[in-house]
Specification:
The complex is a heterodimer.
Chain A lengths: L6 E12 L2 E13 L4 E5 L6 H8 L7 E10 L2 E2 L5 H7 L4 E4 L13 H12 L5 H14 L16 H13 L5 E5 L7 H18 L2 E6 L2 H5 L4 E6 L2 E7 H6 L4 H8 L39 H5 L4 E5 L2 E4 L1 H5 L8
Parallel strand pairs in A: 3-8, 3-9, 6-7, 7-8
Antiparallel strand pairs in A: 1-2, 1-4, 4-5, 9-10, 10-12, 11-12
Chain B lengths: L17 H5 L3 H21 L1 H4 L31 H7 L2 H28 L1 H16 L2 H12 L3 H27 L3 H8 L4 H37 L11 H11 L6 H28 L6
Helix pairs in contact in B: 2-12, 5-6, 5-8, 5-10, 6-8, 7-8, 8-10, 9-10, 10-11, 10-12, 11-12
Classes of the chains: A alpha/beta, B mainly alpha.
Chain lengths: 330, 294
């Protein structure tokens, strides 16, 4: 029997139903995530990547509504669960690491109180001492001295607070950790350390990891698979190796070209011209065409389909759909 | 192995300890001065039975309307009561009323503010409307109207004052909750599977408490003044209980005859007590404001 994938997102569509109109934040998006796998979710601000992340624990902020699709966690469709059942998934099965570590901890509570609160929420029978033991172990695993569990959040630096947030996330040994831009608020050196920490924890704890970021370069080397999102659409989905070597979508190519590379002779970075569309009044056709250097007549008229470019490599672009001979060129 | 020494705090961060207070500049000193005034008046009132030279309620202990002299340092009133003894014990009712009214305000304003603003929507709208309409009345007028309806006595005075000041608590709690419930740590708590109730009680409430403490301290001063006002116009306690408010009433009647001491000393005491609470409240609000820390 084939083992069920840990997470299966199936034609998920999420709308923000505002007074001024409908904004489609996530459009008909599907992917699967196996146990222990790392997925990078890349896109610019407003591309729907955070909304997608939050939808997995069903915390899309209002007026966001999941209008269509399924999210199956271990085979259970979480969209059919009650709020009470959902509470046991949040934190216990799926943990979330937020973007801003400076405000993600309550300033009037000691670090230990955060852990005890979390562990007790999910395992009410556990004694406080046992909860503290576990908390100390988690802190130790993220590289924070366990003695410091007695301190208040303001006594830690930003990087350390993010480590504490990660320790909170792994304390209950979840199956999946979703990290929403975990390093955006941190400086570059701390960034690399936090990301490597996440990766090594993934290896020790065997959890799956979704890394949401706007920086393609940081997920390329750390993730197994990558989804590139643009204006709510999945534009490319591939293993990071394949994406790096053989990007299919013009947007992904643009992103790759905008990463500084010291080996290239050309010193100037290529940027993608223009800015993302206003999703309140989406134009017909492909969302990316106004910025695309390959745009044709057809791209204005209708949205391109998702095509399997090579096995396991999906691209949403007409160019790939109509030039199958290109797909195996390396 | 390297040993890392971490500074431990004995108190939660929002309760400053005394030694650190003096190092916090003006705000620290203001708090200390205010607290000293308030505590000494409270102590004086508590010890009144032992330290006052005469029974404050007894008439004819001395000559009528005698100006301050060596036997009666603050003089006597028109009934021959010793003013010094009356000053020493006359704050008792006022302090009781102030404490009780702040307690009532907390009892009502805090939970309603928390629940209504956390729930949001129509519940929040209804409570905001009710509280805002109460807030629109001039405080003293509303307190007089309610006191006139429910009668005199310490508890009734406290109740009528509480009605006036509940909206302040509601508003400050509401504004804080609206801010805090959108902060990442409240959202993070939700993402760890915490119940709404525990988010409210364990994440939001502790962060609201510092602001409420400040409002309460400032409100003590207002409550003192309102209590004095109610007694002054006869809606406070019985005449047989010594009270600065009553002495003001008597003093006002005696003032044309030149007996300035009957109205002056209780007046000074009321101002002093209110000032003490105000200084303490202002100082605390500076100290507890996390943005000003360090």
């Amino acid at each position: 029997m084939v083992q069920l994938p840990l997470l299966e997102v199936d034609s998920l569509t999420i709308d923000y139903q505002t007074r001024r109109g409908n904004i489609r934040a996530v459009n008909n998006l599907s992917f699967t995530l196996e146990r222990g796998e790392t997925l990078g979710l890349v896109g610019e601000s407003g591309s729907g990547k955070s909304t997608l992340g939050l939808s997995i624990i069903r915390l899309v902020p209002p007026p966001g509504v999941i209008v269509n699709g399924h999210i199956r966690l271990d085979g259970t469709d979480i969209l059919t669960l009650s709020e009470e059942e959902m509470r046991f998934i949040r934190g216990k099965k799926v943990a979330f690491v937020f973007q801003d570590p400076m405000t993600s901890l309550s300033p009037v509570k000691k670090v230990e109180a955060h852990f005890v609160e979390l562990i007790r929420t999910h395992e009410p029978n556990i004694s406080e001492r046992e909860a503290l033991e576990r908390a100390k172990k988690a802190l130790n695993d993220v590289g924070i001295l366990p003695e410091r569990i007695d301190d208040y959040p303001h006594q830690f630096s930003g990087g350390m607070r993010q480590r504490i947030m990660i320790a909170l996330a792994i304390a209950l040994n979840p199956d999946l950790v979703i990290a929403d831009e975990p390093t955006t608020a941190l400086d570059v050196i701390v960034q690399a350390k936090i990301l490597d920490l996440l990766k090594s924890l993934r290896d020790t704890y065997g959890m799956a990891l979704i890394l949401i970021t706007h920086d393609l370069s940081i997920v390329l080397e750390r993730c197994d698979k990558i989804i590139v999102m643009y204006a709510g659409n999945l534009v490319e989905y591939a293993t990071s190796m394949e994406l790096h070597k053989n990007p299919g979508h013009p947007y992904t190519k643009g992103l790759l070209q905008s990463i500084p590379n010291i080996e290239l002779a050309e010193q100037k970075l290529k940027a993608i011209p223009g800015s993302p569309p206003n999703l309140l009044n989406p134009q017909k056709g492909c969302h990316f065409w106004p910025r695309c250097s390959y745009a044709e007549e057809k791209c204005h008229m209708e949205g391109p389909p998702v095509v399997e470019f090579s096995p396991g490599h999906f691209v949403r672009c007409f160019r790939e759909a109509h030039s199958p001979e290109r797909s195996h060129k390396r | 192995m390297q040993k890392v020494e971490t500074k431990r705090r004995i108190f939660p961060s929002f309760i400053p300890n005394l030694t650190s207070l003096t190092r916090r500049g003006l705000a620290g000193w203001i708090t200390i001065i205010g607290a000293t005034i308030v505590l000494s008046i409270m102590l004086m009132t508590l010890l009144a039975p032992w330290i006052s030279p005469h029974n404050p309620a007894e008439i004819n202990v001395g000559p009528l309307s005698s100006p301050p002299n060596s036997q009666f340092p603050l003089g006597t009133n028109h009934l021959g009561q010793d003013m010094l003894s009356r000053i020493i014990s006359g704050g008792s009712v006022m302090i009781q009323v102030a404490v009780l009214s702040v307690f009532f305000c907390l009892l009502v304003g805090l939970p309603i503010g928390l629940l209504a603003s956390y729930a949001g929507g129509i519940i929040d709208k209804v409570f905001s409307l009710v509280m805002d309409s109460l807030y629109a009345f001039p405080g003293m007028v509303l307190a007089i109207a309610i006191a006139a309806m429910i009668g005199t006595g310490v508890v009734n005075m406290a109740l009528s004052i509480a009605v006036v000041y509940v909206p302040s608590y509601f508003r400050i709690v509401r504004s804080q909750v609206l801010t805090i419930k959108e902060l990442p740590y409240a959202e993070a708590a939700l993402a760890t599977g915490a119940k709404g109730r525990s988010i409210l009680l364990r994440y939001i409430l502790p962060n609201v408490v510092p602001s409420v403490v400040v409002v309460a301290t400032v409100n003590f001063a207002d409550a003192i003044l309102t209590a004095a006002g109610l007694t002054f116009i006869g809606l406070g306690v019985e005449k047989s209980i010594p009270d600065w408010g009553w002495d003001l009433t008597d003093g006002r009647a005696l003032l044309p005859s030149g007996a300035w001491w009957v109205i002056t000393f209780p007046g000074i005491m009321i101002v002093l007590l209110a000032l003490g609470f105000t200084l303490m409240g202002e100082g605390l609000s500076e100290l507890l404001n996390p943005r000003l820390e360090q």
